[in-house]
C-alpha cells in the first residue's frame, strides 16, 4: 500500500468482508477480529482484485515498510529529516541499517539509495510541472546540497536538465507504485 487510494481500497475490502480495523496505514492493517483461514483467503482474493497483495513473509513486509518510509519522506512530508537517512531508517524500522540495506538490495535488485533517488527525481518532476517553486527552492525542499547537485542527479536519471524537462511538459511521470520496481 503506497498511497491514500490504496488505503481506501483496503478499507472498502475489509468492510465488504465484515471485518473491523483498528489501523489501515501504508503497508499495515490491524484487524480487531481473529480471522479464519477462509476469511484470510477471501481477503487475499479481494485485495488481489484491487491490485494489492496480502503479505505473510516477514522479509517482504519489512521491504514494504522501508518503501513506505521512503515514499512518505519524499512525497508526503514537507519537513526535512535532520539526521542521516540511514540512522533515521534504522531507528524507524528498529533494525541495523546494514541489514536493511542488504535485504533491500537482495530482494529488490536495487539499493535503498537508488530507490530514494528515483523517488526524489519523480517528486522533482512533479514540483517542476506544478511550477510553484523555482529550481533553487526545489533543491532546498528536496534536501540537496546545491542546485548543481540536483541538476546533475536529475540529468543522470532522466537524460534531461531540469530546465529542459520544464520546457518539454509532455514528459510522462511514473506512478509512485512503479518507481524503483525492476519490472517497470
CATH fold descriptor of the largest domain: Arc Repressor Mutant, subunit A
Unreliable residue runs: none
What is the share of helical residues?
A: 55-70%
Second CATH tier, the architecture of the largest domain: Orthogonal Bundle
For the biggest sheet, the summary is: 2 strands, antiparallel
* Overall CATH class of the largest domain: Mainly Alpha
The strands making up the biggest β-sheet line up spatially as 1-2
User: Tally of extended strands?
Assistant: 2
- What class, by secondary structure content? mainly alpha
Secondary-structure element order, N to C: HEEHHHHHHHH
Distance between the termini: 17 Å
Strand residue content:
under 5%
Mind telling me the C-alpha Rg? 18 Å
Can you characterise this structure?
It is a single chain. The protein is mainly α. It has two domains: 51 residues, no CATH class; 118 residues, Homeodomain-like (Arc Repressor Mutant, subunit A), CATH 1.10.10.60. It is built from nine helices and two strands; from the N terminus they run αββαααααααα. A two-stranded antiparallel ribbon has the order 1-2. The longest helix has 19 residues. The chain starts with a helix and ends in a 16-residue tail after the last helix.
Provide tags for this entry.
184 residues; 5% strand; 2 strands; 9 helices; two-stranded antiparallel ribbon; mainly alpha; 2 domains; globular; Arc Repressor Mutant, subunit A; single chain
Q: Short description, anyone?
A:
With 184 residues, the protein is mostly helical. It is built from 9 helices and 2 strands. The protein is globular.
Amino acid at each position: 500500500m503506497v498511497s491514500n487510494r490504496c488505503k481506501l481500497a483496503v478499507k472498502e475490502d475489509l468492510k465488504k468482508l465484515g471485518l473491523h480495523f483498528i489501523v489501515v496505514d501504508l503497508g499495515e492493517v490491524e484487524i480487531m477480529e481473529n480471522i479464519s483461514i477462509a476469511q484470510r483467503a477471501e481477503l487475499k482474493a479481494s485485495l488481489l482484485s484491487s491490485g494489492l497483495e496480502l503479505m505473510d513473509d516477514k522479509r517482504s513486509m519489512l521491504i514494504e515498510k522501508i518503501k513506505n518510509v521512503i515514499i512518505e519522506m519524499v512525497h508526503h512530508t514537507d519537513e526535512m529529516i535532520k539526521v542521516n537517512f540511514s540512522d533515521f531508517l534504522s531507528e524507524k524500522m528498529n533494525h541495523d541499517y546494514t541489514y536493511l540495506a542488504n535485504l533491500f538490495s537482495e530482494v529488490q535488485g536495487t539499493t535503498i539509495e537508488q530507490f530514494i533517488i528515483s523517488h526524489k527525481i519523480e517528486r522533482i518532476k512533479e514540483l517542476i510541472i506544478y511550477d510553484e517553486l523555482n529550481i533553487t527552492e526545489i533543491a532546498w525542499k528536496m534536501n540537496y546540497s546545491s542546485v548543481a547537485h540536483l541538476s546533475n542527479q536529475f540529468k543522470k536519471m532522466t537524460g534531461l536538465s531540469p530546465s529542459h524537462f520544464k520546457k518539454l511538459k509532455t514528459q510522462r511521470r511514473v506512478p509512485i507504485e512503479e518507481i524503483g520496481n525492476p519490472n517497470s
